[in-house]
User: Fold this.
Amino acid sequence: MILAYLISIALFLVVVFFSNKMGRLFGMLQLPLISGFLLAGILAGPYLIGVLSTKSVGHLVFVDQVSLAVIAFIAGTELYWEDLKERFHSITYITAVQTFFVFILGSVALYLLSGMIPFMKSMSAGGRITVSLIAASILIARSPSSAIAIVSELRAKGPFTQTVLGVTMVTDVVVIVLFAISHSLAQPLLSTKGFELSFLLILGVELIASLLLGLAIAWVIRTLLWSKIHTYIQSASILIIGYAVFAANGWLLAHAHHYLPIHFHYEPLLVCMIAGFAITNFSRTHEPFHEHLHNMAFPIYVAFFTLTGASLNVNLLVQTWAIALVLVIMRLVMLFMGSWVGGRLAGDPEQHNRLSWMTYVTQAGVSLGLAKQVATAYPSWGQAFAALMISVIVINQLAGPPFFKWAIQRVGEAEVKDEELPEGELQLLKEVG
Assistant:
C-alpha cells in the first residue's frame, strides 16, 4: 500500500515537471500559465495518455487538500480591509446583484430547460426544483485560485482588480451558504417529509464553528511565526496545519454521526480563508505569513491545477458538451447582467461594468468539490448531475483565464504589458518557482 502511494507521488512529480514546462510554453504564447498546467494534467490523466491512473489520482487527494488550504489562506490575505473598504460599496452591490441573477434566474432557467436534460426528464416537479437550486448555487461559484494566479502573473493592481478579487472571495462564502441551504431544502422537496427548520440551526452552528476554528488557526499560525524555529520548518508547519483542517473535516463527515445525533461538519475552505483574513488584518505577523505563502504559491498552483486537469473525465465533456455549452452561455449572460447592473448601481466606471463579467468566468476547486458532494449524496441522479456540472466547470475553467487576462489588460491595471509578457512570466517563474 505504501509502495503504491510512493509510486503515485513519483509519477505525479514527473507530470508536474512537464506541466511546469508546458506552463512556460503557454507563457511564451501569451496565454495564462494555469491553462498550460490544466492541459498537461488532462493529457497525463487516466482518460488520455494515462501516466496517472484513476487509482493514482485517488492517492493524491492530500495534494488537493494542502493546495486548497494554501489557496484559501491566500484568498483570506487578499481581503485586506484597508484596501477593500474603499471598494466595499462596489463589492456589495456586484455580489448581491450577481447572486440574484445567477441563483434566482439561473434556477428558473434550469427548471425550464429540464426537459432537455436526460436525467431530469422523468423527475417530479419537486425533483426538478431540487436539481435547479443545487445547480444554480454551483454556477455562482468562482475560482479564487485562478483569479489570484492571474493577478500575480500580471502583477495587476488598481480599483478594478481590488473589486474583482473582493467579489470573488465574498462570493465563495455566499456559495457555501446557498449550497448548504439548497442541499437542505432538497430533503422535503424529494420526500414526503415536512419542511424542517432545524437545518437552519445546524447551518448556523456550522458557520459559527467555522468562524471560531478559523480564528483559532490564525492564533496557532501567529504563534508559530513568532517562534524562533527555522523558516523552512515554519513553512512546512503551515502546510501541515492546512492539511489537518481538511483531514479533520473529512473525519467528521465520516464519523461524527456515530457520536452525535446529527451530521455535523465545518467548511474547511472558509476556515482557512478566515485564518488568512485574521492574520492579515489583526496580526503583526502578516508580513512573514505573506512571505511564506508567496514562496510556496507557484509550486502549489502547478500541483493543484495539474491534478485538477488529471481528475477531469474528458469523456464526460464529450457526452454532455451540448447541454453544458447551453448552461455556460446562459451563465455568461447572467454574469454580464449581474456585473453591469451591480456596477451601475455602485457608480463604477462604464468600462469596468462592461468588462468585469469576464473576470468571473473561471471555476475550479470549490465547484468541483460541490459537484462531487452531490454525486455522493444522491446516488440515483447524482452521478449524471456531477457529469453535467463538471463539463460546465471544465469549459469555464479553460475559457475563463484568457477572458480574465484580457479584461485586466484592457482596463490598464496589468504592470506586465503585452510586449513584456514572456519576460515577465519567466521572471514570475524565477520569483515564486
User: Anything to note?
Assistant: The two ends are 31 Å apart (CA to CA).
